[in-house]
Known about the structure:
10 helices, 8 strands, globular, two-stranded antiparallel ribbon, mainly alpha, two-stranded antiparallel sheet
Amino acid sequence: xxxIRRHHRNxxxxxxxxxxxxxxxxxNTPEWQAKKPNDMLQWLEDASEGADATPERMVDRQxxxxxxxxxxxxxxxxxxxxxxxxxxxEYGPELRAEVEGVLAETNGAWKKTSxxxxxxxxxxxxxxxxxxPPSALxxxxxxxxxxxxxxxxxxxxxxxxxxxxxxxxxxxxxxxIYDSAATFDGFRFHRxxxxxxxxxxxxxxxxxxLESMTFGHGRFACPGxxxxxxxxxxxxxxLLLKYETRLVNDGGKSAEAVRPKNLVFxxxxxxxPEVKVMFKRRST
Length: 284
C-alpha cells in the first residue's frame, strides 16, 4: 500500500499542474478548442463532470487507464515469451524467418502493413492467449434491474444487483470448438486462415467471436486490442531478430522444456514472475 500511495503522489505532482495549466489556457485562449492536445488526459478533462472533474480524481482515472493498458499487454507478452522459450526449436526459426521475409519486402523498414503480414506470429500470439487468458471470465456485469432468462426451462430470474459473466476461458479451451484444445499449437490459426473458406482477415489475434471472447465481443469489445497487437508484434519481432530464447530449467534444450504454469487467483490468470528465461544474442 505504501508503494501505491507513493505512485499516486508522484502522479499528482506531475499531472495536477498540467491539468491546471490546460484549464487556464482553455479559459483564456480563444483558439484553445482548435489547438488543445489530443490525448487521454484531455479526453478525461472534456468528459469529466461534477466531483469527477477535480484534478485529483482525474489523476486517479488516468492511473487506472494506464494500469489497464500496461499490465494486460505485459502479462500477454510474458506468456508469449514463455511459450516461445519452451518451444524455441519448433517455432523460433520459422517465426524469425517470417519477420525477415516481411522486412525484406520493405528494405528493412517497418510499416503498419508489415505487421498485418505476420500471420504465423499473429497465430502464435492468439494460441498463447487462448490457453493463457488474463481471466477465465469476460462480460462482467452487474444487473441494475431483475432479468428473466427466457430460454431457460423453467425460466430463471436474476435479481437486481446480481453479477453475471461469460466463461470465456473454458470456452477457448473447449474440445467442441478446437481440435486437441489442451495442446499448444502455435500455427493453429494460421492454418485455419489458409483452409478452404478461411481468409487472411479471419481468426486474427484481435478477432472476437462466440468462440473467442477474451477481448469481449460486439459493441463493447476492447478498443485497445489493435494497439496492443501491434505493440506486442514489434517487441516480439525485435526479440526474434536479435536473440534466441530458452527456459533456464530445461538445460538449454527447449525440446525438454516444461512450459511454466501460470498463477491463478479467483478468475485471474497471470504468468509466474519468478520464472527465469535465457536470452542469447544471435551470432549471425
